[in-house]
């Protein structure tokens, strides 16, 4: 409103102030408009002044007029026609609203009347349909553009969307609304839509399309000749214009001649010109480039045509033709690229009008594919076009000599191995191999024919051991339809002996291979080195790979057959005229992994501890160098490490300090890549059971039985000595006088050195002179005295025995010789006891010169025991329970006394008269003789 009021005020004040001094108003006011540029050019005639006031009013803005522009300008007249001309650029499209343009003359403060002209817009009532301006507008990327929408007469306005986005709008007139859009990116091929929506969605829509792009920008404009006559010019677009379509695309002119076919940015001219100018134009701008050159400096030949070949086993001649005859006198350089089985070679050839080349060093029976291109030999510009690919196959010939090696097993067997010839080495259809084992000294040959699918020939050194030489030579030749190859030779030591093994070192995989280095022997210039490798888990007839190195002292073993987790053995050999000599051995992994299988684990109880043992993981399952084992307690939900055993030799662990119960243990082997899944073993820990006790008892019994058997065996071997030591022959008794029976009791008096203990009985006759009774006190003293003395002594001791009443009946001896060994009296109650071979009693000397009674050994004091009734009735001596002669030969009947009774006897008894208490005395005697028995046992030779 303020602008409108200001304009109205200025108009009114100017009219009233200078009404009296009015200038001539502009005449012949007219206009022209450029809708694309949104410009109006106004012209008029007024010859008196050069200063004018311009007023631009917009129609139908809530009032009849709205002032858009009010400006005072100085416009000199055109000297030719005297017209004044002024150009005004509108911010909105010219058709958005109707405009009234007024012009008046000004001279200082004086002004003329207004001259006006009406520019009708699209919002006039005469145009009731909906409209939108501008249509198909082309702008620079990033430029600002104003769109206006004229709604249909009688309808209300809704909104404007740019690329489906609602934008802010401004009302310009009763039916016109405008929106300002900034396009910051180039549009696509069909442009970007701007749509005006009425308030009612069912009403008719209107819209426009906008295109945003760039003016042309070119580079690399150059012209060349292909046929040595015409020119072919080409260029590149340095920037994409993003303007497409017949009216928006870029047009090109070379030396003002249109290039109709410019899709490839190339244009052909009939004749050569030294200067060229390229002009590129589109609706947003124009760009020009120039080029200058002579014809001989811009020659780029066309592609050779009609290629043919004349082939041989190792060379081929390639021929072709030229499209233009002018090439026959032009110096050319041609490049030939030929490929066979991914092997690419490049050759260059020179010549005037070159039309053929000869390719050498080719592989027989090999398919080749080649292509050729040429260029100028002098003033080279660019390579010409490539010819079409051409293929041919060389002729066949004899195969190449195979690469041969020898593999030895540990059982004196081995195999000659060779690398199977590839098609490019067989030079034709391979029919087989011929292997020959021969001895140069003895001229013996053993040929073997092998199928072409086989690459090994086994041999056995044991079968060849009859040869006198120490080595044999194996030769291998390959055979095809054209003949046999040259022989490949390898020496085999016939007297194969396993030398001391060489230490194995680690090979580390680095940069795609296993590096191996060694010190060369410069004195042996003919030595060829061979690096051999194979899977370390193989033991016999392994699949071996090898490579021969002639001039190096280091080498990196590379192969497509190396896999992670596989251990490989590498061996370095020196090969000369002698059999291969092993220099170095290595082992390595391409990549170490965790073991693929756990250790075979077992657990058992050992006393109160738990012993875990496991077996070694097979080499194929290790997948890395084992560093050791980790032992865990397995609680199902977690593992607790209890031991780390470094080294692979530790394959057992004793778990201590656990009480009774059930336990689980897990053992995991680990490499540099980590641990395996682990093996778990369960065990129930218990106390020592009865089975163990029984086992210990049986073990003790077994040891004891073994000892007894040994003792029995020794005793059996020494039985004569044992009999002599334990059961010696008793000497025969020497009895003086006549020992016939008497009925009277013997008057036995005790020896001065022997005390006889008389057991009194109630019916005994004390009037008779019998044995002396020893009081109990003396008996105790005797017992003490006897207990202190040694068991085996010659000193006399008291003999204690029971009194025996003489039997009136004749005595019948138990043994056949009892009558010859003793005599008794039927009437006597006295008994004369004789110990033979030791001492003669005085009583015996008195009656017949016989020996007196002497005890056999020092008896021990009798223990006080109740008498048996039988002993009381029998009276006198108590006979020994059993008695046998020392030997059967001495027990037979005899005319005299028994050779040896070994014990004192009574007249009326054939049993030994030993007291009960002598059993312990006898034990003492045995103990005293044990030392001498053992000494005799050790000293005897039988």
From TrEMBL:
Q: Its membrane topology, per UniProt?
A: Single-pass type I membrane protein
Q: Membrane-spanning residues where? A: 692-716
A Pfam family that the UniProt record links to this protein: LIFR_D4
The cross-references to SUPFAM superfamilies, in alphabetical order and at most eight, read: Fibronectin type III (SSF49265)
Q: State the GO CC annotations.
A: plasma membrane
Localized where?
Membrane
Give the span(s) annotated as Disordered: 777-942
Report biased composition (Polar residues) as residue ranges: 826-844, 927-942
Family stated for the protein in its record? Belongs to the type I cytokine receptor family. Type 2 subfamily.
Q: What is this protein called?
A: LIF receptor subunit alpha a
Q: Which organism is it from?
A: Tetraodon nigroviridis
